[in-house]
Known about the structure:
Elements: E1 2-5, H1 11-24, E2 27-30, E3 33-35, H2 40-55, E4 59-62, H3 70-78, H4 83-99, H5 105-124, H6 131-151, E5 175-179, H7 184-197, E6 202-206, E7 217-218, H8 234-241, H9 248-262, H10 270-283, H11 287-305
Helix pairs in contact: 1-2, 4-5, 4-6, 5-6, 5-10, 7-8, 7-11, 9-11, 10-11
Amino acid sequence: MLVSSAPGSNPAARMRIWRALKASGAGALRDGVYVLPRSETASAVFEEQAQVVAAIGGSAQIVGFDSTGPAQEAELERLFDRSEDYAALFQKLDAFKVEFAKVNEIEARRQLAAVRREAAALAAIDYFPGAARLQTEQALADAEALSNRRFSPDEPHAAFGHVTLCDRAEFQGRTWATRRRLWVDRVASAWLIRRFIDPDAHFLWLEQPKGCPASALGFDFDGARFSHVGPRVTFEVLIASFALEGDEGLARLGALVHYLDVGGTPVPEAAGFTAILTGARAQAADDDALLTAMSTVLDSLYAGYGRPGRSGTSSTRSNENAVPGP
């Protein structure tokens, strides 16, 4: 609990404090008295605002407490009910589906990215998630699947079996092929191939998967050498195939790509990455230019996510350690 009293002579500062506490998801018991479920994050939020209150000549105390019983616990939890917020997001997704056929790709991706940002922000302060959150996340996944079916057709189906470890030395200077008009999994996989697997890779962007030459290494389409296996998307399959799973930066990128491609656990950067990719795809003259533009973005994310000095250090292993194939 944060119990604070800020001087009325500084309304602008009082408003900043109120906005910060509202953004944190704090529940208001009364004016100047706020509560959050106990956590390190909650303590940090209240400590910061207590310092702000003190700086403008007010007073603030942070008090830890336990509820007196189930009745008070339920009353406190009601302060954090987000069902109306989720209902508003649900309505936006319904409106998106109604108007979907009338909008172009850039506008569709923009609308979905905006809803995804709102959903992620809401989930961050949803301390007692329930059915409303699950329903909204499913509705968002359905809307994204609808968008992908229209703008990124021929998405691969997950194959059964195991991922086989590959010797990187046997995959140098090769031609790699995937579907044109790159989207999340394909652009990230192409970046991964050139950055960690085959620096001299040459890429073919296929109009249709059936046009893949026999000599090329296909990725991210049904029947390709590297594509979805079980719960893994192509990016994750490539990571596993070339023994890169110990790289923290790639693991976090894998979580981002997985969420954007097939759903699952939300990733904070997802909406921003989608917005950047949508804009880059609208501006790029072709897929080569798009890969160049997005490689800079992926390099930056990788540098921020992990330890870039480890890049490529664990990528070469012989086939004697291979996991049995399907």
